[in-house]
C-alpha cells in the first residue's frame, strides 16, 4: 500500500468521524433515521453529501425480514454472503464453523 493510499484512507476515516460526531446525537455509533433526518434538514447540502449512501426503505425492510429471528452467527453469515455478492468477491469456503477462511492465531 502506497503512502497516498494510506493518506486517502486516513482522510476517509477523518470524514467518517466528523460526520458521526455531527450526526450521531446519542453517541451509540449508529446513525438512526431520525438523526439522519434532523441532520440533513438543517442544510440540504448535507443530504446531497449523504443521501446516496442510504438504501431504499423497501430494501431495508426486506433485509430485516431475512434476518428477523435468526441467531447472531446466522446473521453474520448472511452479511458475509451479501458482501460477497455486492462486491463481487470470490467465494472462499470457511474453515469449520469459522466465518474466516483461515485460522487466526494470536502471536
Automatic annotation (TrEMBL):
Organism: Plakobranchus ocellatus
Domain of life: Eukaryota
Residue stretches making up the EF-hand domain: 11-46
InterPro entries attached to this UniProt entry: EF-hand-dom_pair, EF_hand_dom
The protein's name: EF-hand domain-containing protein
GO molecular function list: calcium ion binding
Amino acid at each position: 500500500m502506497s503512502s497516498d493510499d494510506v493518506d486517502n484512507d486516513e482522510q476517509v476515516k477523518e470524514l467518517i468521524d466528523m460526520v458521526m460526531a455531527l450526526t450521531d446525537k446519542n453517541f451509540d455509533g449508529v446513525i438512526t433515521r431520525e438523526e439522519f433526518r434532523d441532520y440533513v434538514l438543517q442544510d440540504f447540502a448535507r443530504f446531497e453529501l449523504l443521501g446516496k449512501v442510504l438504501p431504499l426503505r423497501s430494501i431495508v425492510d426486506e433485509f430485516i425480514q431475512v434476518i428477523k429471528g435468526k441467531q447472531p452467527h446466522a446473521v453474520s453469515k448472511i452479511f458475509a454472503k451479501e458482501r460477497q455478492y455486492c462486491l463481487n468477491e470470490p467465494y472462499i469456503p470457511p474453515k469449520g464453523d469459522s466465518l474466516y477462511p483461515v485460522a487466526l492465531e494470536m502471536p
